[in-house]
Design a protein that fits this description.
globular; single chain
Amino acid sequence: MPDGMRWIGEHSYEDAKRGVPGMRGSISLTAARGVEAEAFLVRLGADSEQLQCGDLYNERDELATPSGVDMTHVSRAMYGTCGDWVYVLEDGFAATWFFGHRGVPEMDPLVGEEIICLTLNHHDAPSLILHAPGDNGRTWETEFRGGADWSPELDAALRATGAVFPSLYDGVSTEAEVELYYEAHADEIPARVFAGVGRYSGLTIDRATVEAGLLPLVLLSSPVI
């Protein structure tokens, strides 16, 4: 399975507005399957009429502000599909679904749909992997560098890309060894995590398309934090 999202993690520490018409740095990802794309986007806070306009992300600064919309808490995101997944990319503080999945009923994961979210949380570290497997509506989470004990398949994919770091709880590593390993490899964590999730999900997201902003624009009314 290709590591089709590693590049997103490689640029996690870059300025989000660094000289491209689309996105390259500081990107958080939310992806879902088992649900129609428009339905999922509306649950995230999108307006169905805006989705029908077909505007591209690189046109966002040229478009008029929608009537009656307070842009203070709106995330200008882009979205696409890959196989049976719909995905949303945001280069703000964090992923909208992370902010709302516990407090906004419409964002609750439903039985039969799988949601996976990689949120960088620049506003409040650490970066997190959130995963709703779709079996019982429950959402699990772990920090970047942690394992996915609830899902053997996801855990194996993260381990295969080196995204699971030594832990005090593995019965092998000492605190000093864990800290030394983390200090030596901290900058590599996001790339390994995005690669692992790509391996697990089969998601491939084209870098050139994202950097050029050629995916559709979606305006998400972010929950106020």
